[in-house]
Amino acid sequence: SKLTNLGHLEMTWRSKVRFHPLLVRILHKSRLRYYGKPEKKMDMPYQAYFEVADGSGMMSMVLWNSLCPEWYHSMKVGTVLLLDKYAIKTSYPFKTHPTPGDSQMKRFATIEISLNVRDPPTEISIIPEEMVKPEWGLPDVKYRFITRSELDDLPNNHSCDVIGLVTFVGRAERARKREHSEDFWLYRWAHAIDGTSDQPFILELFATSQPDVFEHIHPMTYLVCTQMRVIQDLTENPSRTVYLTTSNESQIFITGWHKGQPYTKDAKVKNFIQWTKSQSEADQIKKTVIGGYYPFPRPPDSFLKY
């Protein structure tokens, strides 16, 4: 059928009611958001957004309500979609934006694609990777992997991807989303090493929409975390520690989930796998820890400094 592209949509969307189908690849995926309120009677108040791209650039795509339980888990980073009967809306100004792996990619930020169960009922098709043709010009998923030796030089809030061998994982803890709120964030701390430094990555992992992965992070698993944010303690604390925290678009993968993921082709991921082959599993197991209370960032040694 006759296709359109994202660049053409941005130029012509105001003058059209019906849009031609779109062929796009998913580059980023947010966690699933529940926006239900007791006074509002909605069957499935869910929302998730994705960053999708074609040869012309990248745009946000929002999946609404009952389409979320039906499609959210099938729409992975790297998945190619054929979309028809979608709606175009002006962008929501307050949402977070992932940092694209390809800094040269054009971003269309004024509008977003809206996928609804009606008005109009969107038609979504997933194109299997083996049927994707090079002439469609869809961009590859690109990453920003860093090694532990590079981390200390990165600025606060820098976005990056990491891979490491888990040496410590803490228990799941809860933090209130807001003071006096009944809503909580669930998170756990983990350490992962990659052989480039004596220090591990310290990772603050909030529960994303991947409970099956979040609950099964164990020592000795290969852990990949994407779209992590660098937290640099900007005070004059000599014992300052850099750590990484998840963002709204973070994805987490552990051993058993890596097959077929786009990052397996990345050079730094391949280097890490080579390093693990040179390690003795028995030696590494002796250094691993699981559970317990992990106070972080650590308080100073004395009350005077405190």
UniProtKB/TrEMBL annotation:
Transmembrane segments: none annotated. It comes from the Eukaryota. One of its GO terms (molecular function) is single-stranded DNA binding. PANTHER family: RPA-RELATED PROTEIN RADX. This is RADX protein. It comes from Erpornis zantholeuca. The lineage of its organism: Eukaryota, Metazoa, Chordata, Craniata, Vertebrata.
